[in-house]
Write a structure and sequence with these properties.
By secondary structure, this protein is α/β, with parallel strands linked by helices. The protein contains nine helices and eight strands. The structure holds pyridoxal-5'-phosphate (PLP).
């Protein structure tokens, strides 16, 4: 380990190997669900990792990356401005940071309340977003209660500067992930009565992406299965 270049190469080989394993897992899950894997976007969640990891991912053909903390995301977007990346913001958005997040993010996965919709409105450009649904009974988890979903969707639709892609969710602990994702799929069918274009589903992480694919996920948010363990947050 004395040669830093050698250590770097070893890291890159490990990353390439994990990425290839996840890509073949996605292909297998898509095939068994009778789906075309080209309909599935893999967002690699790079939170807590350095920008060098994102550069390595780009070298391995990754285009979509996800971050969940505003300051970290903003710094990374700035540092990597020269790269052809689509930035997904997957964390909770504070109302007072909303305008800043929309300035650098390409897609926001975590729209979960009316006040945030209002804070994200814009007359000058349009940003893609998902409404996040909370599948637990714990409001701190983020996401709108399914019972309040329809009015929130209507609010997004009547707000300028937002294009609704669909729904986002995290499978709760203690529930079979496939059942949780089936609930999201059904909610997605329901909101399409209000928003026929909102046909995408952001769901599935390192531990449960095959189940999410079975239930129609179009955007997977995968971290550790590709990046390896996250460094302790600084
Ligand atoms: C961190 C994170 C992920 C990725 O989680 P892994 O278990 O590492 O795949 C996905 N979605 C959100 C919202 C996250 O914060």
């Amino acid at each position: 380990m004395s040669d830093p270049d050698l250590a770097g190469l070893r890291d890159l080989a490990g990353l390439a190997e994990r990425l290839a394993a996840v890509r073949s897992g996605i292909a297998a899950a898509a095939a068994s669900a009778g789906r075309d894997q080209r309909d599935i976007v893999t967002v690699v969640v790079t939170k807590f990792h350095p920008v060098t990891l994102i550069e390595q991912l780009v070298a391995l053909g990754v285009h979509d990356v996800g971050e969940n903390r505003h300051q970290e995301a903003q710094a990374k977007v700035e540092a990597l401005a020269g790269l052809d990346l689509t930035w997904h913001f997957v964390g909770q958005v504070q109302g007072k940071k909303a305008k800043q997040v929309r300035a650098y993010a390409d897609v926001i996965h975590s729209v979960d309340r009316a006040s945030l919709v209002d804070a994200l409105s814009s007359e000058s450009d349009v940003i893609d977003c998902f409404v996040q649904v909370n599948l637990t009974d714990d409001p701190a988890r983020g996401g709108v209660d399914p019972g309040l979903l329809d009015p929130l969707v209507e609010r997004v639709l009547s707000t300028s500067g937002l294009r609704l892609l669909g729904l986002m969710a995290v499978a709760p602990l203690g529930e079979e992930p496939r059942r949780a994702f089936a609930r999201v799929r059904e909610l997605g069918e329901r909101i399409r009565l209000l928003a026929p274009e909102a046909k995408f589903l952001s769901m599935g992480m390192s531990q449960d992406y095959p189940e999410a694919i079975s239930e129609g996920a179009t955007h997977l948010r995968i971290g550790t299965a590709i990046t390896g363990n996250r460094p302790v947050p600084g």
